[in-house]
Backbone:
């Protein structure tokens, strides 16, 4: 009887092992990220749109019947430059060149409500760099604080929560695979620094949300090729004012500062909106 019992359980064990082997996948995406960035402070408003190439890689991994987890890593590279316009009461006052880079790592735990639908949540680390240079004044305005080249960096740790659709496997009966997720996040740590105010750190707060999806087709067993797209929005609220020490231009000739001096004053990190659209080709595999 014992031998019969073990023989009867053996096919079930083999099937379970095969299911675990066929579950989960890795992916790699190459595409482009289009970012529209806007700042607001009183009657002042800036706006710029920029497009950079982006790489995205990661995977979905099996824990047990109830849980999975995923890791996603994103990085834009080879930054392009675009013109940023600054307006005061809708009148152009300044233009400058603008470059933007972003890296992000997202770790999410998946609770499987059904085979496809899951609740997801976890931490995300992002690092963003904004570089400005080539400033030009317009309509009689002269900016004697921001000139030359200056850089702003933002480090954020978000907690994200959302809903995802994914069956977790590349080995279904249908050669087509569809997956996606919608996420909402708030920062638990957010620090911004500006090279013009090297002794100051601005602690800001905001919210973000995104929706993304992938459609892929099986080109061989364990390998899919597909298309990925993502829409995202991030809101940063204005910070409290801080007392700062900064270098200002006393004499400027043809846009070049010839005499400088140190001054003190107050600075704030203005309210900002970031709209992102990212799309590209994706390879998904499980071997």
Residues:
């Amino acid at each position: 009887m014992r031998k019969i019992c073990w023989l009867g359980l053996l096919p079930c064990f083999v099937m379970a092992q095969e299911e675990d082997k066929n579950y989960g996948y890795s992916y790699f995406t190459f595409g482009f990220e289009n970012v529209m960035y806007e700042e607001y402070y009183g009657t002042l408003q800036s706006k710029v749109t920029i497009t950079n190439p982006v790489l995205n890689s990661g995977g979905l991994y099996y824990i047990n019947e109830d849980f999975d987890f995923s890791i996603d890593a994103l990085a834009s590279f080879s930054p392009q430059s675009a013109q940023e316009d600054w307006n005061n009461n809708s009148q152009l006052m300044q233009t400058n060149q603008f470059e933007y880079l972003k890296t992000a790592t997202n770790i999410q735990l998946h609770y499987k409500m059904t085979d496809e639908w899951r609740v997801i949540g976890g931490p995300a680390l992002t690092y963003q760099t904004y570089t400005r240079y080539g400033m030009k004044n317009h309509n009689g305005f002269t900016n004697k604080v921001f000139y030359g080249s200056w850089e702003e960096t933002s480090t954020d740790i978000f907690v994200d929560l959302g809903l995802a659709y994914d069956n977790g496997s590349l080995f279904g009966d249908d050669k087509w695979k569809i997956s996606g997720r919608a996420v909402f996040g708030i920062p638990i740590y957010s620090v911004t620094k500006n090279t013009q105010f090297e002794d100051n750190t601005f602690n800001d707060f905001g919210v973000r949300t995104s929706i993304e999806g992938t459609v892929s087709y099986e080109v061989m067993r364990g390998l899919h090729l597909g298309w990925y797209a993502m829409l995202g929005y991030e809101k940063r609220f204005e910070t409290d004012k801080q007392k700062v020490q900064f270098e200002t231009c006393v004499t400027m000739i043809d846009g070049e500062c010839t005499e400088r001096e140190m001054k003190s004053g107050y600075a704030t990190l203005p309210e900002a909106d970031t709209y992102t659209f990212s799309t590209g080709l994706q390879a998904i595999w499980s071997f």
The mean pLDDT is 90.
